[in-house]
Amino acid sequence: MDLPRSFTIRERSHRIHNPLTSRKLAGLGEALDPPPGTRVLDLACGSGELLCTWARDHRITGTGVDISTAFLAKARARATELDVADQVTFIHGDASDHVADAPADIASCVGATWIGGGVAGTVDLLRRSLRPGGLMLIGEPYWRRQPPDQATVEGCHATSETDFRVLPDLLAQFGDLGCDVVQLVLADQDSWDSYVAAQWLNIRRWLDANPDDELAEDLRAELTEAPVRHARYQREYLGWGIFVLMNR
Length: 248
Ligand SMILES: C[S@@+](CC[C@H](N)C(=O)[O-])C[C@H]1O[C@@H](n2cnc3c(N)ncnc32)[C@H](O)[C@@H]1O
Known about the structure:
By secondary structure, this protein is α/β, with parallel strands linked by helices. α8 runs antiparallel to α9. α3 links the parallel β1 and β2. It has a single domain, classed as 3-Layer(aba) Sandwich (Rossmann fold). The protein is 44% helix and 22% strand. The longest helix is centred in the C-terminal third of the chain and has 22 residues. It has nine helices and seven strands. It has a seven-stranded mixed sheet, sandwiched between helices.
């Protein structure tokens, strides 16, 4: 089990595999101010930047689970670089049924709610690992503006308008699931630009080095289309945020 290679080519330079900047991620850590020793479970942890930087900045301890061997290798290297390797553990595996051995103070799934079959299922999954009174972090897209047509929906990597909600409706959904929203941090157009433009540079450099690879044709086509597609659709219509929840 591993993440398809195109993903790791596209995001091989990324420490954060979502449209938040390191400053925004650090700001969320500052807002939550977890005490030293806080136990964090991060499902679909990617390259482990949340766990590693919060281990450095707040002395949390944490476990990350992800299917990508490439991203997990980066996570372990980052833990060593930040001198937090004794505080964080990274597990290769499917997070869709992962439950912590001991209840976590913070349970998160940032940018991968498909592991729970959607937002509601992911909240349920995180609840299974959470201590009473703990925090859940959900990273999820939302419509900044209602898409006017199916081209816009697909330009935002969705299949149906119902894949996402507008922000007030997403916040209301968390309430319907029995959660208080107690903090949030949102991407903005600048942070979207930084996230996706770094993908374009990764793809271009990879194409230059691997012109005969079996993925080259598809990634060439993607790079040709991606900037216009981003400007026309995603940049205008898609929002993204991390939402911090507590059970009522
Ligand atoms: C958008 S990235 C987000 C990564 C990280 N949370 C972040 O924000 O930087 C989605 C991640 O989900 C991981 N993933 C996808 N399906 C998974 C699964 N079933 N179990 C564990 N990880 C999964 C991918 O390997 C990838 O690292």
